[in-house]
Specification:
Layout: E1 4-8, H1 18-26, E2 30-37, H2 48-67, E3 73-77, H3 79-90, E4 94-98, H4 103-118, E5 122-126, H5 148-158, H6 199-202, H7 207-220, H8 225-228, H9 241-245, H10 251-260, H11 269-289, H12 311-319, H13 325-337, H14 342-355, H15 360-370, H16 376-387, H17 402-409, H18 414-419, H19 439-444, H20 460-474
Parallel strand pairs: 1-2, 1-4, 2-3, 4-5
Helix pairs in contact: 3-4, 5-11, 11-16, 13-14, 14-16, 15-16
This protein binds flavin-adenine dinucleotide.
Binding site for FAD: 225, 237-241, 273, 373-375
GO molecular function, one term: FAD binding
Pfam families: DNA_photolyase, FAD_binding_7
């Protein structure tokens, strides 16, 4: 019997995988395939930190297939060419996948579909990565929502969580020899220098680990989500974002377990948590309907905004040397762990775009290469939201004061102490504004401003005035 090719992309799991379930139901042997894309014109190729995650996630997925008596086939190159050749070699009559929604991926998949169909191959796409297809949730005029609240209200009115698809216990896997590549040949792990060493202490990629983490979050932490989610020193959020991005767990699984594993409690974190998944749906809807979102201002009035061009400031921000401890802690958390707390993402993004007046795209790019959860829809929307030029964005004049934000959301200074160790001996009174600390405290804490830790690269008050003026000029 000829095999069905099951092309894995951002769905590196067996549970609740609609393309896999459909392939199992068809009864033909399944050839699971992952293609590392090379030689394509994808403007947003895999970010550097994500290569580390992908390596381990693929390795876990392959282990799962080995236990089921098969393997994950790995290929490198142009998917169009690889699939075209593979269907001929194994005489496949069907190719299945779960849909992706990035502009490049939509274009690629359409092209490949047409091509395979012209070879007599049946291609089927499935909804495996979202609760709703972006074209399923529209306003009364039949167009895309531009504001989150009515969008999510509409989603909730349609949300009918059925039991998710279970993981097949047995699989009929294709085993004939196909020229396969080794995962190590993908060269996804960083070398010289290997800056991913800390990732191993913080993260455990793979479907099984995603399920464990979700269970732990739902059993112990979701009820305090509303209370704790804004405090970066506390483990108050789910930290599922890289698992969700790579599809090691589906959002349907999360919603199902959230709603059905116990009585769903509206007043606690459950509903707020659900609404964060709603933001993800909203970002995907925006990206689908406004495919230029990663590159261009959603609000075109911002096209005349006069951004600065200052490489030195950009480098200080990237390296966590701005002299504002909460910003620096965030940028160093990102570099050392491949992740950053949501509250801190907002603070550092506000600092880049409003204090330094650097274009949001520069921050977006840095996040793209350093975040393990880098996601075109969420990242572009997040940056545009903070910069004030996005859909339903934060008002431009809301300019975070990094000292007050630090004092409010890291009141003991523990988060700063963890990631900016040169300030760890300062008291909570000065840890967010070391330049105001008395000399004795600095000496006792072995802090030499301008030497062991920088002075602020820009004065908050002046930066605020400058940003407001720049905004006034485009209104
Ligand atoms: C400037 C900026 C850039 C961002 N870039 C990304 C990115 O590249 N990838 C990414 O997944 N998220 C991004 N976010 C959104 C958010 O910061 C992360 O999803 C969140 O911090 C991940 O941690 P968590 O899994 O513990 O989140 P939780 O609070 O546990 O939330 C659960 C899930 O909901 C989704 N989610 C939560 N908040 C948002 C949000 N504001 N927008 C969209 N989805 C959300 C994520 O999938 C997240 O894993 C960005 C936010 C900002 C302000």
């Amino acid at each position: 019997m000829t095999p069905i090719i099951l092309w894995f992309r951002k769905d590196l799991r067996l549970t609740d995988n609609p393309a896999l379930t459909a392939a199992v139901e068809d009864g033909a042997p399944i050839l699971p395939l992952y293609i590392l894309e090379e030689d394509t014109n994808n403007p947003w190729p895999l970010g550097n930190a994500q290569k580390w995650w992908l390596h381990h996630s693929l390795s876990q997925l392959n282990e799962t297939f080995l236990k089921l008596g098969g393997q994950l086939f790995l290929k490198r190159g142009n998917p169009q060419e690889i699939l075209g050749e593979l269907v001929k070699t194994v005489r496949a009559k069907e190719v299945y996948w779960n849909r992706c929604y990035e502009p490049y991926a939509l274009h690629r998949d359409n092209y490949i579909k047409e091509n395979l169909q012209s070879l007599g191959v049946r291609v089927k796409g499935f909804k495996g990565n979202l609760l709703f297809e972006p074209w399923e949730v529209l306003n009364k005029q039949g167009t895309a929502f531009k504001v989150y609240t009515p969008f999510w209200k509409e989603c909730l009115s349609k949300l009918d969580v059925q039991k998710t698809l279970s993981k097949p216990k047995k699989l009929n896997l294709y085993n004939a020899s196909v020229l396969n590549e080794n995962l190590s040949d993908f060269k996804l792990l960083p070398q010289n220098p290997d800056w991913s060493l800390n990732f191993y202490e913080v993260w455990q990629p793979g479907e099984m680990n995603a399920e464990k983490l979700l269970k732990e979050f739902l059993d112990h932490r979701v009820h305090e989500y509303t209370l704790k989610r804004d405090y970066p020193a506390i483990n108050g959020t789910s930290r599922l974002s890289p698992h969700i991005h790579f599809g090691e767990i589906s959002v349907r699984q999360i919603v199902e377990q959230l709603k059905f594993s116990k009585e769903f409690k509206k007043e606690t974190g459950d509903e707020v948590y659900l609404s964060e998944l709603g933001w993800r749906e909203f970002c995907y809807s925006l990206l689908y309907h406004f495919p230029e979102l990663p590159e261009r201002n959603f609000q075109i009035t911002f096209n005349d905004f006069s951004w600065e061009n200052n490489d030195a400031n950009l480098r200080d921000w990237q390296k966590g040397r701005t002299g504002y401890p909460i910003v620096d802690a965030g940028m160093r958390e990102l570099w050392t762990t491949g992740w950053m707390h949501n509250r801190i993402r907002m603070i550092v993004a506000s600092f880049l775009t409003k204090h330094l007046l650097l274009p949001w795209q520069q921050g977006e790019k840095w996040f793209w290469n350093t975040l393990l959860d880098a996601d075109l829809a969420n990242n572009a929307s997040g940056w545009q939201w903070v910069a004030g030029c996005g859909a339903d964005a934060a008002p431009y004049f809301r300019i975070f004061n990094p000292v007050l934000q630090g004092e409010k959301f890291d009141p003991e200074g523990d988060y700063v102490r963890r990631f900016v160790p040169e300030l760890r001996q300062l008291s909570k009174q000065y840890i967010h504004k070391p330049w105001l600390a008395p000399t004795e405290e600095l000496e006792k804490g072995e802090v030499v401003l301008g030497k062991t830790y920088p002075y602020p690269i820009i004065d908050h008050g002046k930066a605020r005035q400058r940003a407001l003026q720049a905004y006034k000029n485009i209104r």
